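User: Fold both of these, please.

Assistant: Here is the first one.
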Amino acid sequence: MIGLLSFALAVLASPFKSKLRLEAENAVLRHQLIVLRRRVRGRAQPTNNDRWFLVQMYRWFPSILKLATIVEPETLVRWHRAGFRCYWRWKSRPQGGRPQIDTELRALIRQMSTENQLWGAPRIHGELLNLGFEVAQSSVAKYMVKRRGPPSQGWRTFLHNHAPDTAAMDLLVVPTIGFDLLYAFVIVRLGRRELIWINVTAHPTAEWVARQITEAFPWNEAPRYMIRDRHRIYGAVVRRRLRAMGIRDKPFAPASPWQNGFAERLIGSIRRECLDHIIVLGEAHLRRLLKSYARYYNETRTHLALDKDAPLSRTVKRAGRILCRPVLGGLHHEYIRI
């Protein structure tokens, strides 16, 4: 009854349909009959040509969607979308023109632009040409890291550029076997963490400290800045000596040892790696120990801040027999190839 009613309504509505639409609906129904007659057993298996026909008819006449019986409407829509993707994949295929840039070259461009904040596309393009890469400057600008503001150096770069012209000094108190107090004076350059000077005295004075500064630096190798604490031993004599050598005196804030972190770190290393394991017999004994440790510190001991190199850079040797030399009586060891 329902089917008969649907047929009657379709007959009544047919005069109001366009001729092309009626022909399209008839073609879709006829093609579905052909697919069903071709079925051997089980479900109907439409071919690619069948899918293409139904998709094209759906594209031109969307109303035929309700006439699809051998497939679900969602399946027909899925076929249409898949065909749309295939069409635009074919439409977007490379047709010659400029070749694409390799992934490694794009990564190198991004690395250069990240590591060199002051470099623009022309500078990076010039470096790439010298490295043998044939690439356009516009491509370099395309793959550079985009920055919101003007290029600027970071604090790490700023401090690294000023470290070679900066030194720090401090005093270290050491008790002896007779409970007397000795004072070790150290000066360290911040650039390579090099221990420039170390000496010992039982009675430190401003004149003695000034003389140590003079002996530590030749007049043509004095640093630009000297960091120190506000101990009274750095009196007018020391300040005048620094001024005469062209060194700007930089005392840090009271009760702020972290502002002289390089010297404090050096003193901590001297204690942990040397003095905490040895009983000092006297001034000459302490001076000999510290001179030996200073040589080990500068020439052998590796530093994390220097990429595990020594302040006086060590050459890498890959051939030869390994020889072990004791330092500080065997407290540390030095390994070399001969």
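And the second sequence with its predicted structure:
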Amino acid sequence: MRLQRLPLPVSRLRLAALALGVSLGLAACSGGTSGLPGFDGGSAAPGGEVPTGQTIGAGKVKVGLVLPLTAEGQGAVVGNSLKNAAEMALAEFPGADLTLLVKDDRGSPEGAQAAAQEALREGAELIIGPLFAPSVQAAAQVARGANRPIMAFSSDNNVASRGVYLLSFPPENDVNRVIAYASSQGRKSFAALVPDTAYGRVVEAAFQQAVANRGARAVIIERFGSDQASMRTAVQRLVPALQQADALFVPAAADTMPALGLALQQAGFDPAKVKPLGTGVWNDASVARVPAIQGGWFASPDTAGFNAFAGRYQQRFNSAPTRTATLAYDAVSLAAALARTQGSQRFSESVLTNPQGFAGADGVFRFRPDGQIERGLAVLELRNGQIVTVNAAPRDLGPRT
């Protein structure tokens, strides 16, 4: 982790916090970084009380780790991968003075509230987690009453607030970065073809704001449904307006982009004339092979940290981590670094919102006072079926705007 004016040199602290260099790649993940849990409310496993949970570590500083360990479906898979990553972070941080109080929220708001209460009763100074947005809201109510901060994993910025910091991959970051880069490359008129989903509504709003911020023009915005007929209809409405556009924002995920790309291709869309743009959901091998968006740009964490992390995780747990696992790794590494260097102010607002930010497994990041996260992202290009970096992620985030 990297902090401003710390007693340890930055290089030593970064090595301690991150347990040697980490970078991001997608060999062990499914899909990109945008649209991860946060818009989905999750679902709880039926029946039973929230178990007391285990502890990890034996340090003086206690931190709650609230995760959906027994939620139904994918929630439990993600939750347990996050727990493993938290354990790995603590093991890799030399002399970490933390005890993690692991609590199962079962993927429900009620479970999250009970889990947070239990962690705070046991002396937690900070809550790491939960994962799902409704659970974050429930845990935040408890934490505010105890004047304790939360570092949660939801990507829904609506649940961020003062003292509730989202360590996640919000799609707004992706949109801002790719629109800014496209604008810097001379693109001034933008069209958009967005999914008619909760994710689509978020990225559409971010797209409109980002285009306006750059003094550019939004020519047309079309929405498409999940079926191919809806895709074809939306594309047919869109294509005539593309004569006035020099970029097309189309944030369609891996399960949608091949069919949508075919519809664009059949309608005569030419990516050599109108630059395709996307978000981190494009960071997938199947998307990279779609002919209609070759040459397209998208924003995502730099492709150099996750692979190193995933290799160590695989060796330790004999399984591949979920894509969100780095979030718990970074959260625990940050908590351990702050416990070592910041004394009684370790989890204060001024420390957590340090404008210099921190160096994590997915690159540099910082928390805003309103709880939202800003990340340093790379711009990548789909080139001949491969994903290549065309503009590297920044090493620092510069002054706040």
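The chain has two domains: 10-169+305-370, 172-300+380-391.
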